[in-house]
Amino acid sequence: MNLSLHPASPPGPLRRLTLGAHGPPRDPSAYASLEVRMERALAYVEAFRSRSGQRLTVTHLVAKAAADALRRYPEANVLLRWNRPWLRKHVSICVLVVQPEHLGRVDLTTATVHEADALSLQDFAAELEERVRRVRERRDAVIERGKRRSSLVPGLVMNAVLRLLSFVWFTLNVDLQWVGMPKDPFGSVAVSNVGSLGLERAWLAMVPYTRVAFYLAPGAVREVPVLEGEALVPGKMMSLSCTFDARLIDPELAARVLHHIGAALEDPEAAWGGV
After folding, report:
1. Residue 116 three-state SS
2. Does 136 have pLDDT greater than 80?
3. Are strands 107-113 and 93-99 parallel, antiparallel or unpaired?
4. 18 assigned to some structural domain
5. Is residue 20 domain-resident?
6. Which H/E stretch holds residue 259?
């Protein structure tokens, strides 16, 4: 006998309903978070803006630091094909973007920068800003065409259609640009700045058809007392939360990636040079 067991007490009505509503757990999502000191990152952003006149935000820093982390830890730049891990040869960073209501119905979409690890911080920020601007203004023809096509799919079969699309895109590794679908639209890492919504912390749900294995959610920067030496002083902290696919990334690797991003935010001059 593998285990020594005896029956539990009969479940009550609520537990019976719960048991009937849910099957066995099959979600591979795992979660981690890191508290990051942000004084130097915020000062770096302000100095960068003043010197260059170019927009730079915490989202840019987190996204670029994630790209640099995957260059350092390529084993985290991974997706699932044929039920086994495959390593990506290139680093792409996807940022989730809200499309405003005044240009149509409020929607959430993506802006992806490819070869992000090979770009300087300034070039990365410029390219991401341009992509975000086009997406927000609904001027990205490929994304808008894809949204129109998806709206034509009946809800009853949407799940099957997305599984088929994911199978063709990633398992078969077919480039669908010839039928108007974007190439590698979701990238290696997805970033959503929940701090812009006034949230201090959130964990993003994995979206299976995207095959993204690592999701980052920087929260709102908040003022907290911090200990420096023997004195409590005002400080600025941010929670950096992540969701990762436990089939592909173990907690030790996820911790290395998060600590790399945190170190870049706490010392941006060392990560990207002075401004």
Report:
1. helix
2. yes
3. antiparallel
4. no
5. no
6. helix 251-266
Question: What mean pLDDT is predicted for residues 97-121?
Answer: 84
Residue ranges making up the domain that contains 116:
31-272
| Beta-bridge partners for 240 | 34, 218
The amino acid that residue 66 corresponds to is A
**Phi, psi for 114 (deg, rounded to 5):** -90, 155
CB 199 within 8 A of CB 219: yes
pLDDT per position as a tens digit, 140-160:
888 788 778 888 888 889 899
Q: Does the residue 93 lie in any domain?
A: yes
Average pLDDT of the residues in 167-184: 86
Cα separation of 10 and 116, whole Å? 56
**C-alpha–C-alpha distance, residues 133 and 109, integer Å:** 12
Instruction: List b or e across 120-149, with b for residues whose CB sees 16 or more CB atoms inside 10 angstroms.
Output: ebbebbbbbbebbeebbebebeebeebeee
| DSSP summary character for residue 271 | H
User: Structure pTM?
Assistant: 0.90
CATH of residue 181's domain is 3.30.559.10
Q: What are the pLDDT digits (tens) for 21-47?
A: 777 778 899 999 999 999 999 999 999
Under the phi-then-psi rule, with left for phi > 0, alpha for psi from -120 to 50, and beta for the rest, what region is 100?
Answer: beta
Residue with tokens 């034509």: 152
Specify whether the CB–CB gap between 186 and 212 falls below 8 A. yes
Instruction: Give the pLDDT confidence score for residue 251 in this predicted structure.
Output: 94
Q: Using alpha carbons, list the distances in angstroms from residue 102 to 109, 124, 148, 169.
A: 16, 28, 18, 33
Q: Tell me what pLDDT residue 99 has.
A: 80
Burial degree of 220 (CB within 10 A; 0-12, 13-18, 19+): middle
How far is 90 from 237, CA to CA, in rounded Å?
Answer: 32
The per-residue pLDDT for 145 is 81
Query: What is the predicted pLDDT for the residue at 179?
Result: 73
Residue 10 lies in a domain: no
Q: How many domains does the chain have?
A: 1
